[in-house]
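Bench notes, bay 3.
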Amino acid sequence: MAIPAAPPEKMSFWEHLQELRVRIVRSLLIVAVGFAVTYAFRFKLWVWAQKPFLEAMARQTGKPVSSLDPFAFTDLTEPFFSMMRLSLWSAAVFCAPFLFYQLWAFIRPGLLPKERRLVIPFVLVTSGCFLAGAAFAYTQAFKFLGDILFKEAASAGLRANLHASDYLDLFISTTLITGVMFELPVLFFFLAKFRIVTSRLMLKYWRHATMAILIFSAFFTPGDVVVTTIFFSVVLLTLYAVSVAVAWVAEPRQPK
């Protein structure tokens, strides 16, 4: 006779708040340790961060990358705080596996014993999806955005005189939003696993999902141009299609 699975641990509301506080504090400490490392390499991170746009600018202007110097500042504190902000978000990205483990540790008490054993796959998959999204933003999204924006500027005969803080707003937001977008299959895996959604339901309401994706892309994607909205909408629709397949695999099968 099979032994029934133990029920999830029962925690009070205040115990949940205490657990949340512990996980948030540990996450902040993890990012603080990472920040101590990334801040030491802040200037190398800055060179790495501006590379996609400099390459796009070189393609549109016909000048070599080494001759381009489009960044300037008008506030004495801007370079300091810009490098600090870049170092902080870089630390959060590099520490993503540890942060996702803290997320898992928070939801773990509500899971069954067999589900708790998924900690390693959960951390690996969520970290991999997020980092894959960040890599996609760096190698593809910035190439696409840079070509469009610099082509428009070159056609208008404008000279680049950019603020580092404004560029970092675009760089950080695009990288983080794309990383979160790539978590969509993981989200639907758990929604299907807990019988909240099904692949059939997702296919039935694909028109509603498409409209929601278009609205999200219009409000949250950078660039404020229609082409970037279409680009990120296509990316999200592709991820939605992948999520349908993931949900079909994850959803529990009814016993015969």
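Next record in the batch:
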Amino acid sequence: MIVVVDYGMGNLRSVQKGFERIGSNALVSRDIKDIESADKLVLPGVGAFPECMKNLTHLGLVRPILDFLGSGKPFLGICLGLQLLFDESEEFGLNEGLKVIPGKVKAFSRSMGLKIPHMGWNQVIFKKDVPIFEGIANGSFFYFVHSYFVEPALKADIATETEYGVTFTSSIARNNIFALQFHPEKSQENGLKVLRNFSSL
């Protein structure tokens, strides 16, 4: 069973519909028992980093998510669900994350002269072979909406990079943990292929 974590923020229904489109059932839930019994876990998110961490803590979901991450079962973070994995974010001051992946979440500089948030289609460049990208061409386009980006401390965690004024990490992969800055559920066939690959793990 694929469980999409409901912590009161994010595009939960669109993520669920993405899995439905590829023939995979996904349960949207904040029930700790569902998270514990899940075969695969998805942590989506849209909104502010500190508010998301506050909601996860208030709902008692931090420990179940950390336990799942340590279980070896497949995990997928989407957008803010990627950023929450890191040590800290500079969004609205310095805020602690789940501290699973070493590194920080940083803001795009407005001095670049580019529109922020970074919104729309952009290319992802593969930095290593990752099973969720099987069958997808290097340089394929995916859909982004974000003002902050992750900066992993370890290059080994970087799965893809994307250019937007700077070269930033657009996805990470470590063992059973996969997380994307872009939205696969909004990325048409390439995005559905990512969800299909994840479902097949």
